[in-house]
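User: I need a structural model of Small ribosomal subunit protein uS17c from Citrus clementina for a docking pre-check later this week. Nothing fancy, just the predicted structure tokens so I can convert them on my end. Input:
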Amino acid sequence: MKSVVGLVVSNKMQKSVVVAVDRLFHHKVYNRYVKRTSKFMAHDENNECNIGDRVRLDPSRPLSKHKHWLVAEILKKARIYVPPSADNAAAAAVSNPETEAPVSSS
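Assistant: Understood. Predicted structure tokens for Small ribosomal subunit protein uS17c:
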């Protein structure tokens, strides 16, 4: 087997990730290229992978019932959105009073 490149779709397990690998093949009857996706479980020793990372997998000996791949390297890290917490939003509002709506006194 050779190395494959895919996208991490799940990292909810300890030291394991699920990687989706896309491949194109030519369908002879329809004369079109068809995309198929395979999911592989891979071993991630240091829990470095996050969802959306592009990784390269190397084959290995069977590590468990479904794990036969190792994460060789992370090719591209995913951009992770971190929502602003309530403390940061309150601090920003206090430090910048121009952004707040004016309070009318009647």
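Before docking, keep this in mind: The chain has a mean pLDDT of 88.
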